[in-house]
Amino acid sequence: MTEVGDMALKSQIAVVTGAGRGIGAAIAQKLASLGARAVLCARTRGPLESTAAAISRTGGRAEIAECDVTDVQSVERVAAWVERTLGRIDILVNNAGVGDFGGPLHQMPPDSWDRVLNTNLRGVYYCMRAFAPMMIRVGSGHIINISSLAGKNALPNGAAYAASKWGLNGLSYSVAEELRKHNIRVAVICPGSVDTELSPHTGRDPSKMLQPDDVAHAVAMLVTQAPQSFASEILLRPTQKP
What we know:
Elements: E1 13-17, H1 22-33, E2 37-42, H2 45-57, E3 61-66, H3 72-85, E4 91-94, H4 110-138, E5 141-146, H5 159-179, E6 184-191, H6 212-223, E7 233-236
Parallel strand pairs: 1-2, 1-4, 2-3, 4-5, 5-6, 6-7
């Protein structure tokens, strides 16, 4: 592992989905603090402007790109804009995600199932399909998919979310093997309970939960690895059970 310096990612372009709040905002701010030019993606502009302002206050660089990861044309438009205006992409963080923890699967409406799977799994496919060719052309890059420990364990009353993350893990492991020959490292981060709007907090102590910055730290570790190493998966747990 190389030492993370202030400009470890100087001149690199990092695209982060779901960058308006929570984990995505923390990741974008961390990458910008390391010198990357962050492209902030989400469906609505307001939260992205808040993240961009936070990055600017610390001397970082950020661009805003409204994008709905469930819409292939929206993703392709952003990818074309990145290639046209910035010329390359070095880091893609697929963080955008939604959850539904309202009850057992047999009571879940089909449109809720579609919303979870389309965002958490199909959206990652769209983004990798759009951005990986740019990395292949330059022969390097990092793709980091933000999964969950729910992709490793049972999650009663959150079966669709768990299914999307189990699927995301399998997708990530497989694409990692496809892209290794192009010097592109695909990794997955599986956090446990993170104190965000997405997490179901019932019965949990937020002070013991992971924070978005903890996930951002793991991302920074992955994108500053020495060239000969490849950490393909990080399981991230709170020190104390919430």
